[in-house]
Specification:
Arc Repressor Mutant, subunit A, 9 helices
Length: 182
């Protein structure tokens, strides 16, 4: 069944990508989360994994292995790559004196940070309600900073389609994130 989805991806069947994502994303996310140990990084790797599956579907060979094995190998590779990228930014923790020197009084108070974190949870929940392709396009535009032209070229989609999908997705997100009392 999963192999059939991947075969349909070769013809750029977006419904097949959505079906593959729905059928496998929980398992892929679990693997990636075990490797990265961070939810936000795991979510980014998950999107990157399905983007790579979309691009590399023609390379899948059912005679060499099961579709889920191929998919999990891609996810594992993406997760390890993400960890390596993030290790460049790792450092030793500062002692109390060094932390006091680095403290920036212009930073928002902890309650504001907590409110922002809650807003992030709402955003992630709203993003999860989008289809796989619109979610990926939003991620490329806002988390990777790509232009519509770059996204269209990377996704092998017409520019108008990319713009429409992103616009509709943003409208859906806005409706889901608006306070209930407005």
């Amino acid at each position: 069944m999963l192999g059939a989805f991947i075969v349909r991806l070769v013809d750029r069947d977006q419904a097949a990508l959505a079906a593959l994502y729905d059928a496998t994303s929980a398992r892929v996310y679990g693997l990636v989360l075990r490797i990265t140990q961070r939810r936000t990084l795991a979510e980014e790797v998950l999107a990157d994994t399905y983007w790579q599956v979309w691009r590399q579907a023609p390379r899948f060979d059912a005679q060499r292995g099961a579709a889920i094995t191929w998919l999990l190998a891609i996810a594992r590779s993406r997760a390890i790559d993400a960890l390596r990228r993030n290790q460049c930014f790792q450092h030793e923790p500062l002692d109390d004196a060094a932390q006091a020197e680095c403290r920036d009084e212009s930073l928002p108070p902890p309650q504001d940070l907590l409110d922002a974190a809650r807003g992030n949870e709402r955003l992630h929940a709203a993003l999860e309600q989008l289809g796989a392709l619109p979610r990926q396009l939003i991620a490329l535009a806002f988390f990777r900073g790509m232009t519509h032209d770059e996204i269209a070229a990377r996704a092998a989609l017409p520019l108008g389609t990319v713009k429409s999908l992103i616009r509709r997705s943003l409208q859906q997100l806005r409706r889901r994130l608006e306070p209930a009392d407005t």
